[in-house]
Specification:
The chain has 142 residues and is of the alpha+beta class. It folds into 2 domains: 72 residues, ACT domain (Alpha-Beta Plaits); 60 residues, Alpha-Beta Plaits, CATH 3.30.70.20. Helix content is 22%, strand content 34%. The protein has 4 helices and 8 strands, in the order βαββαββββαβα. It has a 4-stranded antiparallel sheet. A hairpin with a 4-residue loop joins strand 6 and strand 7. The chain is elongated, with a radius of gyration of 18 Å. The model has no long low-confidence stretch (mean pLDDT 87). It binds iron/sulfur cluster (2 copies).
Amino acid sequence: MYKRLLVLHFPPDITDKPIVCILSRDFNLCFNILKAEILSGREGYMVLELSGEKRDVQDGLRFLKAHGIKVKPVEREIRKNNEKCVHCGACTGICPTQALYMDRNTWEVNFDVTKCTACEFCVPVCPVRAMEIKFSRDNILQ
Ligand code: SF4
Ligand code: SF4
């Protein structure tokens, strides 16, 4: 299975067309919409994960570009919201790189962003949703 995480920028004249349905129906692709802001008749964007056979994904991307849709890869990063974190430690056991670790002096959970691979394992295990996925705004708003 080949996967691409992308941001699509829609020109105004195409925002009312069922582009994502066409990707699924005609190119046999699975999609997961992570974020979208699309208003009919205005420019819009969508953060989308596409998966399928590599050739089908590439054909789908060609289809998008042929319809004037700008396609860019998404940069994503994980952040720890320290205002929400209750230092329960649930994320430290699942983090494969020890980017999340318990400080044995303070009993607080720290986050070393330089070790984070953005695998997202920590996101669903956090009971207070303190681990957040951020998409590069430069990428999205370009
Ligand atoms: S995204 Fe993965 S590597 Fe980064 S802190 Fe979470 S579990 Fe650790
Ligand atoms: S699971 Fe969430 S609340 Fe618990 S230590 Fe990790 S980030 Fe903090």
